[in-house]
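hey so u asked for the seq, here:
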Amino acid sequence: MKEIDPVALFRLSVLGPLVSRERLDRGELQQIIRELALREYAIPGSRRRLVGEKTIEAWYYAWRKKGIDGLAPKPRADAGASKIPPELQSALLAAKRDNPRRSIRQLRQLMESAGQAAQGALSRSAIHRLLQQHGLSRMPGSATLPEERRSFVAEQAGSIWYGDVMHGPAVSVAGRRRKVYLVSLIDDASRLVAHSAFCLGETALDIEGVLKQAVLKRGLPRKLVVDNGSAYRAHTLQGICARLGIHLIYCRPYAPEGKGKLERWHRTFRDQFLSELDEGRVDGLDDLNARLWAWVEQVYHRTPHGGLDGQTPLARYQRDLPKIRALGQRAAQLDAIFHHRISRFVRKDGTVPYQGNRFEVPYELAGKTIRLVVDPHAETVVGIEDGQGNSLGTATPLDAEANLHRRRRKPDPEGPAAQPSGGPNLVELAYQQYHGNKGD
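ran it, structure tokens below
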């Protein structure tokens, strides 16, 4: 399975509110792009926090044309060099330093009005790169009007899921008390819990495990809305969502849209589950999860919900069953979609390390870099691939004692004997020339 470029995944996350829409009304595209350009992002390999409107627009059309492959970066032939003449560069930088509030459009108009640049000769992107190189890009000011927020609900089940983590109780694990975390995915329209589980952490791996169970039980959502935590920003989670056709959308910091429904779920969970839980009867993490799942299916899903006009979450969800996106052909590939791929260099003895152990791969790969395909939950190696996702065989745990008795291939030190062809060769030509000359 081909690796998805991390930059492409980041760009797809920026486009989330655009690509997750089935249709856009007139003028809505530019409005959403302007809103996205005002947000701050953790841009890979850059200290910048903002993405320009033109850039976002270009990404959007590239995605529409080629999908996620269109979002992969293409190296510039003129990287690091400005095509603007040096005299004009100096004039632009001086004008910007003289008035830092001047926009790119104003700078271009100023240069054209002063006769320093021909009409239309200066592009916005060229000026932008020049200002960036000299640290003169101006951050847009804050909006003068307060942001409008309105309560909403998805039209149908499976349109939007929300993901979040809540701190849970402590349980006995391997003889010691460990704090656990409740990882949940909840459907917006029905308030149904697609899946929820207590985990020993709140990492991307924990979230991916819950997501896998959720899609197996409840099909594929069109959008998954999560916060900006590092676990949700993991490339593995972004890649899984991209392959499943799930639009992963990140809430803006301190403005978590959809948190109201999750907070209601967490409040219900505390009031009705945690308050009734007899921790003295809980025998470890598996037993705690067994009680959680029984309560969700038997109590929460079958209790009328105030936000659903008295319907139960299960009844509201079942009403939209014909509209839920099924896994379809992806079901056969689901395990592979959730596998992790880890780059490893093959040692001279044909082994690679993983989780403190060594695995043998085909000896012909010695000295090359491969990708281990691993099941991160079982911590097992299931295969090896090249950078394009093509299978290169299997990886087996190293058995050094068995290798002691294995017959090894040994190269012939002399190499294969050359067979004369009967035609001319250098030795015979030299012999004839040398002895022929002597005879003369």
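Residues 139-151 have pLDDT under 50 and may be disordered. Residues 6-71 form one domain.
lmk if thats what u needed
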